[in-house]
Design brief:
This protein is α/β, with parallel strands linked by helices. Helix content is 33%, strand content 28%. It has a single domain (2-99, 160-221), classed as P-loop containing nucleotide triphosphate hydrolases (Rossmann fold, 3-Layer(aba) Sandwich), CATH 3.40.50.300. It has a 6-stranded mixed sheet with strand order 6-7-8-3-9-10. Strands 2-1-4-5 form a 4-stranded antiparallel sheet, covered by helices on one side. Helix 3 crosses helix 4 (115-128) and helix 3 (100-110) packs parallel to helix 5.
């Protein structure tokens, strides 16, 4: 489903160049839940951004669902991402001008689904995530954990075939981390969603099918728990 071959990504820092990903390879099958661990700056977010076609690597091949994504034009990448990929961003990226249910419903509304149907489906996800009572609140009035739940609901509302999660439980306590993780994993299995989590949480990856550590720009598979 996802096949990355010899991905290289570098960033300029002053007059020097830093290699974040160095001939990285990754193959993930549909319906797998995998984890990517590593310290801050190791390249976890960069890797997710490349899979989401938000960043263009220096070199390498990105193949998703049999599509050579390197050959897609910018507009085609936007359409491909909209149709296939859900993304839970580390900083939520919720829109303060809209309330909670509108933030969650927005992807459907932008796809032409009626406002009424979009809001109804948004409320279904908010209920599943235990924050339906916050549906009329603006994001700024929510706790960090509540904002993250809203971001999760928004990423899942279109039933993407791929879900990318950048520290999805970073704002949650241990109890709510387990609740939210179990929800995402259970839903991904039911909906046949390929899910990739980038995280610092070693306990979290125990719930996943397999996990990798970024080491010097490459992925090393960790032993199964």
């Amino acid at each position: 489903m996802i096949n990355l071959k010899e991905i290289v990504q570098t960033y300029s820092q002053g007059e020097s160049s830093i290699t974040v990903l160095d001939n990285l390879n990754l193959q993930v099958n549909q319906n797998e839940n995998i984890g990517i661990i590593g310290p801050s700056g190791s390249g976890k977010s960069t890797l997710l951004n490349i899979i989401a076609l938000l960043e263009i690597p220096i070199s390498g091949k990105i193949e998703i669902s049999g599509v050579d994504c390197q050959k897609l034009k910018a507009e085609e990448k936007v359409i491909f991402r909209k149709n296939n990929i859900g993304f839970i961003f580390q900083n939520n990226q919720l829109l303060e001008d809209f309330n909670v249910e509108e933030n969650v419903a927005l992807p459907l509304i932008l796809d032409g689904v009626s406002f009424t149907k979009s809001i109804a489906k948004a409320n279904d996800y908010l209920k599943l995530l235990g924050i339906l009572d916050r549906k009329k609140f603006k994001p700024g009035l929510l706790s960090g954990g509540e904002q993250q739940r809203v971001a999760i609901a928004r990423a899942l509302i279109k039933n993407p075939s791929i879900l990318l999660a950048d520290e999805p439980t970073g704002s949650l306590d241990n109890q709510n981390t387990n609740i939210v993780m179990d929800f995402i994993i259970d839903l991904s299995k039911k909906k046949n969603i390929l899910t990739i989590f980038a995280t610092h949480n070693l306990n979290l990856i125990k719930k996943l099918d397999k996990s990798f550590k970024i080491n010097r720009g490459k992925l090393v598979e960790l032993e199964s728990n």
